[in-house]
Amino acid sequence: MADRLTTEARDAALKDMPGWSVVADRDAVTRTFEFRNFQEAFGWMTRIALVAEKLDHHPEWFNVYKTVTVTLSTHDAGGVTDLDIEMAKKMDRIFGA
Amino acid sequence: MADRLTTEARDAALKDMPGWSVVADRDAVTRTFEFRNFQEAFGWMTRIALVAEKLDHHPEWFNVYKTVTVTLSTHDAGGVTDLDIEMAKKMDRIFGA
């Protein structure tokens, strides 16, 4: 199982992840992705869903029309792990930014 | 454009929609759907996404693993319309409950 990152390691990782930030009062990272429309937003979500299922690591996410807000944390570890950083980077890459 | 339902009409419609309720402090209806796992949750979301795109009426929804919480309201009408009731019933039917 992935180990929870120290606060220092988590914050160091975030420095290379523009748009991501730490959730207030919680050891989790979040980013809001804006698309051109619902088709593009849900298309992206579908690609991420396949990645999530393959990694067996699933996001919390909220979608309304062209906006998707994602929160990542590893439940079993009680906080942010390398798996969350990996997932965040995949999300960014598939988003194209 | 769909007209906003009166409170009476909205509440009357909700009587036939077990699981749905009115959101506190907002003219919107909500239901939480529970699935067996992420595959089933996201599979259902994908079917609903196609319906939403066809109707040009999109939900607000939050997913974490096997749970999806949906909120429906018609932005342009400033509240719940027949379109939301139609979408809610389609969601129920595709969910199978």
UniProtKB/TrEMBL annotation, chains A, B:
GO biological process: tetrahydrobiopterin biosynthetic process
Catalysis performed (reactions): (4aS,6R)-4a-hydroxy-L-erythro-5,6,7,8-tetrahydrobiopterin = (6R)-L-erythro-6,7-dihydrobiopterin + H2O
EC number: 4.2.1.96
GO-annotated molecular function: 4-alpha-hydroxytetrahydrobiopterin dehydratase activity
Keywords attached to this entry: Lyase
Enzyme class at the top of the EC tree: lyase
InterPro entries hit by this protein: PCD_sf, Pterin_deHydtase
Similarity-based family: Belongs to the pterin-4-alpha-carbinolamine dehydratase family.
HAMAP family from the UniProt entry: Pterin_4_alpha
Name of this chain's protein: Putative pterin-4-alpha-carbinolamine dehydratase
Organism: Amorphus orientalis
